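Running co-folding for NAP.
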Amino acid sequence: MLTTKLPSHIKGYQETLDSFEQSMKDLQLEVLDLYLIHAPWPWSNIGQDCTQGNIESFKAMIDLYKQGRIRSIGVSNFSVKDLKAIMDATGFAPHVNQIRFYVGDTQDEIVSFCKANNILVEAYSPLATGRILNHPELLQMAEQKGVTIAQLCIKYCLQKNTLPLPKTTKKERMIENASLDFTLSEEEMKKLDHIK
Ligand SMILES: NC(=O)c1ccc[n+]([C@@H]2O[C@H](COP(=O)([O-])OP(=O)(O)OC[C@H]3O[C@@H](n4cnc5c(N)ncnc54)[C@H](OP(=O)(O)O)[C@@H]3O)[C@@H](O)[C@H]2O)c1
């Protein structure tokens, strides 16, 4: 599945249509699987109120979706407030919210809002960008189950009904990260819920 994003500094109806067409030209595609608003604010000015711009961008994405140019549309790094603003203005819930999510950082408020509104949570940095891979408690649990910490963390995201997006530059790790033929018990999930 191919995903691309509207750059975080581009907001507005026509600006979104233009940026989308440029991406499609660059990707040499007619139809895109998933298009996301990268963030509610420009990365250069985190926290800036861009509510109106996000609403206009999302309206453009809804039109592209209705025209069949995009199969699914969504957002990334949106809070509950950001989500409500675009949903109230358009009457349309995004299909996806791609957010930071990993063992020890589960953003419960956003996740339950997404669940209640049928919005798929994509879990980015599911390995905490690699920082979690030496955690002693995780190491102990992984060893007991005969899996790696990476597999444990990815499985945790899946059992939390999110879609994890682990990244690796190594083929063998790609295979490892997709080999998840085990289940975490309720007790193990609870233990992982409390990892700091
Ligand atoms: N929407 C957003 O704003 C946003 C923000 C951040 C990230 N993302 C997306 O989320 C995805 C992943 O996030 P991320 O790169 O931040 O972090 P991540 O997937 O949590 O961690 C990636 C790190 O883990 C290592 N790694 C992966 N598999 C491993 C394994 N099995 N064993 C040991 N080390 C392993 C990788 O190193 P090697 O390459 O050496 O294996 C890399 O250093 C990316 O596609 C990224 O584009 C989105």
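Result summary
Residues 76-77, 98, 124-130, 133, 148, 150, 165-170, 173, 176-177 surround NAP (CB under 6 Å).
The longest helix spans residues 51-66.
Job closed.
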